[in-house]
Structure formats: C-alpha cells, structure tokens
Design a protein that fits this description.
The protein is an alpha/beta fold. It folds into 2 domains: about 190 residues, Isopropylmalate Dehydrogenase (3-Layer(aba) Sandwich), CATH 3.40.718; about 160 residues, Isopropylmalate Dehydrogenase (3-Layer(aba) Sandwich), CATH 3.40.718. Helix content is about 40%, strand content about 20%. The protein has 11 helices and 12 strands. A hairpin with a 5-residue loop joins strand 11 and strand 12. Helix 5 runs parallel beside helix 6 and helix 7 runs parallel beside helix 8. The structure holds nicotinamide-adenine-dinucleotide, 3-isopropylmalic acid and manganese (II) ion. Manganese (II) ion (MN) binds next to helix 8.
C-alpha cells in the first residue's frame, strides 16, 4: 500500500499549538505502529495572508484531490484580520471547494464531572450532531445597499437545495442504521422560515420513510436546544442545517466538557476529507501553552478512523479518556498541565499500548 498523505494546516492562534500535539500523536503512531502516513504541512493562515495577500493558494483544491487523502486543520481567526477573509477563503473555501457536505460533531461526555448539568452520567450525554456543511447562509449570497448610511440594507440569503438537504439527511440516517442507533432528530426553523426550512420538512418526511426501524422525529431548533439541556439522554443522532448546526454543536460541546474536548470531521464520503477541532483560534490563549489539545487529538483519531485505522483511533480515544481520568488536563478542564505536557502524556501512553 502506498502512503496515505495528510495535509496539515495549523492556521492561527491556538490552532498552531493544538495541531502540534495532534501531529506529535500521529508521529508516535507512525513510529511505533508503522502507520503508512506521510505528513505535509502548509503555513496558510493570517500571517501569510498579511504578509503576501494569499489566503488559499490557487490550485489548492486540485492539489488536495490529486495528492492527499485527508486534511487536518487547526483554526483560522486573527484579530489583525477583522474581516476574517482568510478564514472564509481557507476554512469555508475548503468545505465548499471539496464539497465536504457532512460536518460530523460527536458530543461525548468522557467524565461526569465535566457536565454542567446536575447528576448526568457519561452514558447520558453521548450523541452526534450532523451539520449540513455546504449551504445555508454560509455560501455568501447576498449584499449591501447604501452601505455605511443610516438607510443601509444588508441581505444574507439562506440557501437550501433539495440535493443538499437530502444528502445530509440520508447520511445521518445511514450513520444511525449502520450503528444500530434508534433515535434521530431533525432540527429546523420551518415555522419562521417556511421556504428554505419547508424544504427540510418535506425532504425529511420523504427520507424518514426509508428508515422505518429508526424512531425519527422533528423538533423546531429552539425546542431542540432546550431539550438538549433538559435531557440530553434522549438524543443519539441530530441532523440540521449549517448555521443551526454550528450553534447546536457548541451547545453540545458545553454539555460534554467544553470546546477543548470537541472534535469534528468535514466529510465527503469516498473523497479527500478534512478534520478539525470545533473550537477557534482563541487569541486570548494563544502562545501561552494553556490550550487544550484534546479536541485536535480526537480529531486526528476521527481522521485515522476515516483512513481505515480504527484500532489506532480507539487507542487514541482511550488514552485521552485516561488522561482525563487521571487529571492530566489543561486549566479549562480544571487541571494544571500545559498543552505540550498533555500531548506528551498521551503520546507516552500510546507508546505503552504497543505490543512488542
Ligand atoms: P474560540 O473557540 O476560539 O473560543 C471560545 C472560548 O472557548 C474561549 O473562551 C476560548 O478561550 C475557549 N477555548 C476554545 N478552544 C479552547 C481550547 N482548545 N482549550 C481551552 N479553551 C478553549 O471562539 P471565538 O472566541 O468565538 O473565536 C476566536 C476566533 O476563532 C475568531 O476569529 C473566530 O472566527 C475563529 N473561529 C475559527 C474556527 C475554525 O477555524 N474552525 C472555529 C470557531 C471560531
Ligand atoms: C466552526 C466555526 C466556523 C463556522 C467559523 C469560523 C466560520 O465556528 O467551524 O464551527 O461557523 O463554521
Ligand atoms: Mn462554530
């Protein structure tokens, strides 16, 4: 088998620090398990954008499709680029350009003490959010009239296509079916947005009929958010639109210990896909060796699973769970370890897993 090629884009702020730890884990597995991975790093982000005016270099999509199996990305966002243009070009650019229509965001409580809800066990907070990743208000259709005047008009269109809605719904149902999951909930705001989200309603009504063994239901997103907090144990799979999924996945992250523990995958099954922590570049934490690298490390585990290395993915998850249990954590989880020390501990633990 030829090498599997991994493009790594650390990005900005704490993205750089947490991706260094994820790469440390991958390097450990390459060394000790002979994983056939080849890592190529790209210095794309605010720094390069400010220096050279280049965000996503020309030809990037073709290069990824031709030369890479996966992308591991940190975070984009820098106070020196108030428009966030480079993030739109790079992060959203890759999601759209590679048609990564599935944004998979697992919400899994690793230790009950991290849940802000009273008396919730690990098994009661364990679900996955599927966020549509190529449409909605994110696509940039819209404009401004009379900009900068008191009469300014600003329009952002919420784009929903039959194909786009159907494929994310089907993916969520297929995920549930393949794992014997029984509960799926679709969230939208069709009561207020009857055109765009009416399409979600109609498509959902049709798709759910193909999965009679799954108890599927619909909740308006406001109620869904409330129910996630009131009783998260009722959810196994949540599927929703791009913007609503962005919000619900951060809410979910809070139920499971915060953004420092939340990984994600941007997928187009069968094609080059991208993996990233859900969190951003947290400029206030950058350069201080305090950011939690676990979300990035768990994203690398999702990446390995996608590449067919399920055993190694499980081993990473187990090592992270052990670090959590032994309080080898950064301050966001109540610990007093630095970013690098957490990465070192998990790497050492993985070396211990090795069968001689
Ligand atoms: P953020 O995720 O960077 O931070 C939100 C909060 O969570 C902050 O209090 C931060 O300190 C904390 N936090 C986040 N990650 C953490 C970690 N690994 N360890 C410990 N604490 C962590 O979101 P924000 O502050 O809204 O945005 C900052 C910048 O990041 C903005 O420019 C935003 O656009 C960008 N952003 C990028 C991505 C991405 O590239 N995927 C995602 C979200 C936000
Ligand atoms: C995320 C982020 C991005 C999003 C931002 C940085 C555009 O919040 O990945 O969750 O909204 O998709
Ligand atoms: Mn977000």
């Amino acid at each position: 088998m030829g090498n599997q090629r991994v493009a790594v884009i650390p990005g900005d702020g704490i993205g750089v620090e947490v991706i260094a730890e994820a790469v440390k884990i991958l390097d450990t597995l390459i060394r000790t398990r002979h994983l056939p991975l080849e890592i190529v790093t790209f210095d794309w982000g605010a720094e390069k954008y400010l220096r050279e005016g280049v965000s996503l270099p020309e030809g990037a999509f073709d290069m990824f499709r031709r030369e890479f199996d996966v992308i591991l990305i940190g975070a984009m966002g820098d106070p020196r680029v108030p428009t966030n243009q480079h993030a739109a070009d790079i992060l959203l650019g890759i999601r759209f350009g590679l048609d990564l229509y599935v944004n998979q965001r697992p919400i899994k409580l690793l230790d009950a003490r991290f849940c802000p809800l009273k008396n919730r066990s690990e098994r009661e907070v364990n679900f996955v959010v599927f966020r549509e990743n190529t449409e909605g208000p994110y696509v940039g259709v819209g404009g401004n009239l009379k900009r900068g005047t008191p009469d300014e008009v600003a329009v952002t269109e919420d784009v929903n296509t039959r194909k786009g809605v159907e494929r994310i719904l089907v993916h969520a149902f297929e995920h549930a079916r393949a794992r014997g999951m029984k509960k799926l909930c679709m969230g939208d705001k069709s009561n207020a947005m009857p055109h765009g989200h009416g399409l979600w309603q109609r498509t959902f009504a049709e798709v759910r009929r193909r999965y009679p063994e799954i108890e599927s239901r619909h909740l308006f997103v406001d109620t869904l958010a409330m129910e996630m907090v009131r009783d998260p144990s009722q959810f196994e799979v949540i599927v929703t639109s791009n913007l609503l999924g962005d919000i619900l996945s951060d809410l979910g992250a809070a139920l499971a210990g915060g953004l420092g523990l939340s990984p994600s995958a941007n997928l187009h099954p069968g094609q080059v896909s991208m993996f990233e922590p859900v969190h951003g570049s947290a400029p206030m934490l950058a350069g201080k060796n305090v950011a939690n690298p676990m979300a990035a490390i768990l994203s690398a585990a999702m990446m390995l699973e996608f590449l067919g290395h399920a055993n190694e993915a499980r081993q990473i998850e187990t090592a992270v769970a052990e670090a959590v249990r032994q309080e080898i954590t950064t301050p966001d989880l109540g610990g007093n370890q630095g970013t690098r020390a957490v990465g070192d501990w998990i790497a050492a633990r993985l070396t211990g897993f090795q069968v001689a």
